[in-house]
Amino acid sequence: MHILLTNDDGVFAPGLAALAQALNRLGEVTVLAPDRNWSAAGHVKTMHRPLRVWESKLASGEPALATDGSPADCIALAVLGLVQDPIDLVVSGINPFPNLGQDVTYSGTVTAAMEAIINGLPGIAFSLDAGEEKVQELAFESAAAHALQLTRQIMSKGLPNGIFLNVNIPYRPVGQLRGVQITHQGQRVYRDALVVRQDPRGRTYYWIGGDSPTGVRDPDTDFRALAEDYISITPLQLDLTAYNVKAELEGWNLGVS
User: Is residue 193 one of the residues assigned to a domain?
Assistant: First the structure.
């Protein structure tokens, strides 16, 4: 099996190195990751400037490829010919913090997996619910071990076409999790605030700040699963059509005078 591995935290992120070392047990792993942090960049594809790719190394010293493009660019570059060998699976992560609810539309980690299914490949995004821990102090070995086990099991079954998985793992040692739950997206509660400041030359600038977001812990949601020490696996697709509203809108006779 040939796995294309990327992330949104940059090629030197420890979560990427831990995941690469774990997935090497499944087969060939090609790492193509951004050269810098793209957190909360969303599903960005670079169309108006050239992209550069060069040889690099992971935090563990293993070889990798780096690019000045986005996580989605990493997948596009590889699939369009940069990586010669056929790719069987795209994996993204390990993100140091969770991607829950509406976060999936912002997350570079998750949108890399979105780009996979656009190109006809299965995709899995792995994130860690590290809470208030400092990124530089995180240990990713437990999450990487769970990611290895889940990837092996998922690929043995095969994902349906057009479906990718958003996996969030509690920050607990191996053996201290209660299991796995298949969940749906919960409701993220953002508490953003606009911070207005002035630079030394008196010019106004803006910063999107505020308190950390929370979430509604409804049953069967990703938020509830993590709160109860379960790994959350949410199957996602790119068809955002609200089918339950479609028939109602058709009944409005829009455009008819």
Answer: no
For the record, the structure tokens of 231 come out as: 């790994």
For residue range 136-177, list pLDDT tens digits in order. 778 999 999 999 999 999 999 999 999 999 999 999 988 889
Q: How far is CA 102 from CA 5, 46, 98, in A?
A: 23, 23, 11
Burial class (CB in 10 A: 0-12, 13-18, 19+), 253: exposed
Q: How far apart are CA 223 and CA 236, in angstroms?
A: 16
Are the CB atoms for 89 and 164 separated by under 8 Å?
A: no
Q: Which two tokens stand for residue 3?
A: 């796995």
Distance CA 210, CA 213 (A): 9
Contact 155, 176 (CB under 8 A): no
* Domain containing residue 70: 2-186+217-250
Provide the whole-model pTM: 0.94
Question: In the 8-state DSSP scheme, what is residue 103?
Answer: G
Task: Write out the two tokens for 210.
Answer: 């505020």
pLDDT in tens, 3-17: 999 999 999 999 999
CB 90 within 8 A of CB 122: yes
Residue 212: inside a domain, yes or no? Answer: no
Q: Say if 147 falls within a structural domain.
A: yes
